[in-house]
Design brief:
Chains A, B, C, D: This is tRNA(His) guanylyltransferase. Chains A, B, C, D: Adds a GMP to the 5'-end of tRNA(His) after transcription and RNase P cleavage. Chains A, B, C, D: It is an enzyme of class 2 (transferase). Chains A, B, C, D: Belongs to the tRNA(His) guanylyltransferase family. The structure is a homotetramer. The first copy, chain A, has about 260 residues and is of the alpha+beta class. Chain A has a single domain, classed as Alpha-Beta Plaits. In chain A, about 40% of the residues lie in helices and about 20% in strands. Chain A contains eight helices and six strands, in the order βααββαβααααββα. A six-stranded antiparallel beta sheet of chain A has the order 4-1-3-2-5-6, sandwiched between helices. In chain A, a hairpin with a 2-residue loop joins strand 2 and strand 3. In chain A, helix 2 packs across helix 3, helix 4 crosses helix 5 and helix 4 packs parallel to helix 6. Chains C and D meet through helix 3, strand 4 and helix 4 of C and helix 3, strand 4 and helix 4 of D.
């Protein structure tokens, strides 16, 4: 029984190869996570376990897809930078998009119990995703700076907002109090009203999370003289550092090396 | 702290709205499911629990996304037909693609335990997905016919193949024996060598699975005279029937009704 | 001397095939024709020679590209409807777009002298073009209705505007006088102020121009008895008729016949 | 009379903005120019007037569209490099494509008589066109190298081919004689059989034509002492030089300067 009579329907498929020599950024974002985090009682403004679950999935992504060079995450959002030379499924956008977001989602549900052993998953977490191409490494850096600035702005706002709410204000009142305030006003408010030194908050909240492969030195054994024998090994690290300035990129020149 | 300096990177995002008045088919497909089904000891050629897990996720899709009109599934593949009038996220392809495949994946992992209570998930299931637009209902029907013919061809082949393997042939020998055989040869082989009447195999294996909303009559209570009080109600049904001929579509004219 | 070292640059070309089973409309539009028509002293609001030059080029298009089913033109704009089954250059958008607009432009310059024997071409006429796909014949009809309604609205406005200007008003005054007027106000103004019965204006101005192949009867010779011998022959016609109502399409069912 | 009922058809138009920070190459190519050049008796293998007509149109392009940085032409083909920063019609591909090819075509017909005063245009010249985006200046250089290598290969082949034909061989025999020959074989054949030193052929044939803006020094007047007063002025030049090596680009660093 031949299938040829109907096979013409395949002709409606559209070729969607991404242009060569472009860095490909896959960004995923929790869908309806405002509700999802309320349903699951996430701590406000930052739930450490929820962030670590996201980070753990991002590590799995980097390990699973060899063409990912760098991940950056904040809140319920993660960006995955695919090498400009990647030939993963001939750079077909729908493959990168669907396999990436599907794998991440799968990991999120599987790992849920590791980070929330006492919380049942009450509704399915799921994510939207998009793909954007960037023609040069320096624009990828600007992209990452854009996300990290956003992380900072949102975190500062949310920290103030939830402190106000936790101190008895309604959400509406908190919103009103923050309208039009500048960065330094918010730092001031945190310090004087709540005794919080913003700079001392965890780096993960302020800087977001970077996931990448790095060379680390590890002790593999102790020799007969009692000295540690060390070896450099490449491993995936999660870090919460500034990626806007040049230092990180000077220290890790291979991540965004252009062909 | 303004973010404007880096916001230009948003301009690299590409508008990907699907054309109006087109039916949108989202097809998902298990990635590396050959290995995944081996790792999890799926029965060959068809694992009833694995198929029912897929169907259960497909039901959840239809219930969750109101613009899906019909699902059709076979093996580790499912097609979701979005109404031609859908305005879901303004018809942005990446939204439909990512949210659809992510939600399905999430359900698959969550429901795993319902269908495989004694099997641990050993690796993350994940799916690729693609989107294809079809300008007319009759082409959507041809698309579905294409998938259902494929279901039949593959099932017949796989039934023979695994029977041969289970009877002691190597996979290579089984392949050789089946090379060039016609449909009737395979039916003959099943009947004479293995005593199997292909027509008597479960419809789910031969026809795949259709998921759609239908009006069903249900007894809501028994009245004082002891007679059942019935009510017509719309509910999601899973069916294993022919969708190539006209009968199904005459019986369900609303599913592919064109604007 | 091999060229292979540089040939990788071809990989940056993007496939741009238009989806099957869609009608393809190529619309061209004069670029800076406001100035072009001023520079060449076109009569206002309608220059018969300029319109006939456009029509003549549109006839050439229909004769040259066999997959064009119908042209519709108004002012310095023309739409060309390509059959939904067209396989012209495998439906590559850039081919249809570039060859269509380039051929039209070439004809426009070549034929200029036929319609303006006493006017020198003072600057190069050129056109922009776009391509839009329509999934069904009835939407193509709506597209044509959209253009023909536009033709009527613009022509009525422009007729009033230029009559006012020619009667001594400034362009600004004319604009002010017409602001907010309805169709019947404009007809009234034309009749009472300028003695013009709008309905009696040339159909080409009010309805635009349709170009298509039609069967016409022509006398091929006179037989011995002195009677004309007629033969039906297909030829390209230019017509100025209503294409919003059903009559034209009932009379010419083949033009937008769907596969 | 409102047009709103039909205006929904505009929604079928697809946004086609080219990605930012990419160089945009518009390449046009004569359609059926094999026949066109035969019909108009172009000299083989190179017709100087036909090439100069192409060059003259390319100069007009550079002067008309301020965002074009460089043109390169060979035979009936021309590439136009649009600056990576161009915001011409918001980078809409169909605008750049259609306006570019239409303007070029218009100039070609208008200027025909300047280069072929004694030849009537017997059929309309028209061109196809395509657009390709290149993310970096160095890839644009590779693109140009690709075209210039092609120019050389084709010119060498065509020079031999037409010499053989003009010496009495049939086109088929000439083809056979050249099959499998290397560059040096062809040079040898030209020299020994036809007394032609390939290196001495006009640079326009061997290198193609480059069009760009350059600073030239011109004498604006002679002062009282009889000395020429010179001024540097930017003007469009047509040159036939190597653009594969670094020299040209070192001498003209602004042409492909990246933002």
């Amino acid at each position: 029984m031949a299938n040829s009579k109907y096979e013409y329907v395949k002709k409606f498929e559209v070729e969607d190869k991404l242009p060569p020599c472009n860095w490909v950024i896959l960004r995923i974002d929790g869908c309806h996570f405002h509700r999802f985090s309320a349903v699951h009682d996430f701590e406000k403004p930052n739930d450490v376990n929820a962030l670590m679950l996201m980070n753990s999935c991002a590590v799995a992504m980097l390990e699973h897809f060899p063409d990912i060079a760098f991940d950056y995450g904040v809140s319920d959002e993660y960006s995955f930078i695919w090498k400009e030379t990647s030939q993963f499924y001939q750079r077909r956008a729908s493959k990168i998009l669907s396999l990436g977001v599907s794998f991440f989602t799968s990991m999120y549900v599987i790992k849920w119990r590791d980070f929330f052993p006492h919380k049942e998953l009450k509704e399915p977490p799921y994510f939207d995703a998009r793909i954007v191409c960037y023609p040069r490494a320096k624009i990828v850096r600007d992209y990452l700076s854009w996300r990290q600035v956003d992380c900072h702005i949102n975190n500062q706002y949310n920290t103030c907002f939830w402190k106000l709410v936790q101190s008895g204000k309604s959400e509406k009142e908190a919103q009103e109090l923050l309208k039009g305030t500048l960065a330094k006003d918010k730092n001031e408010m945190l310090f004087t009203q709540f005794g919080i030194n913003y700079d001392k908050l965890p780096a993960m909240f302020k800087k977001g999370s970077c996931v990448y492969k790095d060379h680390v030195e590890e002790t593999v054994k102790i020799d007969e003289a009692g000295n540690p024998v060390k070896r450099r090994r490449q491993m995936v690290v999660v870090d919460h550092i500034d990626i806007i300035g040049n230092k990180f990129w000077k220290d890790h020149p291979n991540i965004l090396k252009e062909d």
